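Input chain follows. Return structure tokens only.
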Amino acid sequence: MRARLGKMVRGHEFQFICANDMAGKMDRVVQINGGVVRSKEQGEDGTIITVMKAE
């Protein structure tokens, strides 16, 4: 996460999938690394999280 956000320019977005039980904790991780969670879509196989570079 840190490496990905560190190489992005402000306003760029990416998506990743994580386990449903970890999705709630990702907001803080994304924020610490300079991003903003734009959306979360929960499915049976995991949660797809869209992140945007904020800084």
